[in-house]
Amino acid sequence: MKILVANLGSTSFKYRLFDMDDESQLARGGIDRIGQGEGQCFVEIGEHRDEMSREIPDHAEAVNICLQQLTNPEWGCLSSVDDVAGIGFKAVFAGDMSGVRIVNDALLDRMEELADVAPAHNPPYARAMRQLRKAFPEIPLVAALETGFHETIPDENRVYAVPHEWRDKYHIQRWGFHGASHRYIGGRIAEILGRDDLRVISCHLGGSNSLCAMKGGESMANSLGMTPQTGLPHNNRVGDFDPFALPVLMRATGKSLEDLLDDLSKRSGLLGISGLSADCRDLEQAADEGHARADLALRAFTASIRHYTGAYLTVLGGADVIVFTGGIGENSDRIRRDVCHNMEWAGIRLCEERNQNVSGETKVSADDSDVEVWVVPTNEEIVVARQSVERLKDEG
Q1: pLDDT digit string (tens) for 277-330?
Q2: Is residue 370 within 8 Å of residue 121, measured between CB atoms?
Q3: Per-residue DSSP letters for 278-315?
Q4: Which of 3, 45, 187, 216 could in theory staple to 385 by disulfide, Cβ–Cβ 3.0 to 4.6 A?
Q5: Residue 55 shares a structural domain with residue 198
């Protein structure tokens, strides 16, 4: 069975094609500047790479280009479009319609209804899925909701201290996100260490960020709450924030609630603190050159990671492994070092030499560390592909 996994942005489409008989990756590619004039398209199949530039009006045309490339008679890896059993999506939020679902009107309506919860994710996904259902009705679409992995979180770690009917009627609770990434990390570190009973703190650090406490591969807590704007500071999204500051800001600035929410979701996080950049690499370079606010942004980011790490040591009754993943988690030796600094009391000791020489899956803790610390690149796409296969089999 061949599954195409799509990663959608408002103006981009990235994909990987898997042969799920052996979980091998057959191809990867991407298309950008959708609906913005001339866009760039590329595909890699084995050692072959093909690139082209052309105007791409919408996501349906982007997928059409993708399928044309994959079925190219000279170097393609598919004999026909019929070889694609389904397209899987790492969808973000549909409230109580969680888990892994065949995309239909009810799901899309729910995603659009909750667009203000995940404004950077739901609108482009729902819009593109509607286009694809119309353009390719013969190909099933599968949505693997990020919230599904966190359904095992105990109620005491999910509930907000708000009127109970808000949860019952409006589903106001800590939903948790980054489910595909944390699911992969939990499974992969269990394979590496040969244990299925591990207490794991998974640190997904990149453009958006979250920590997840896992026991035996199941989610026990996640730092993201009702929305992907919560928890740790993100590249340009706020993270944890007191909502009672909003009326103060409305009076002081004259801005509307909508304007302030836009500030919190687009001009906050690392960008807001530093006033310089949302990119951790830029901030580390600037901090090394004496930029005080860049350094403050990094220290605030690290402090928040340590805060949740301490909380999850309590949730799990200690930890066997801490795993860093995502663009920052895999590449920033400073962040890993600062998170683990002075954590010997919890049995966490980093090996500085290993931490500075990471390549792929790497153990970075010292030999005498009670808690192993690893860097493991995540693979959200293979998780979505696996979930899509299982859902399609259930459909018969």
Answers
A1: 999 999 999 999 999 999 999 999 999 999 999 999 999 999 999 999 999 999
A2: no
A3: S-HHHHHHHHHTT-HHHHHHHHHHHHHHHHHHHHHHHH
A4: 3
A5: no
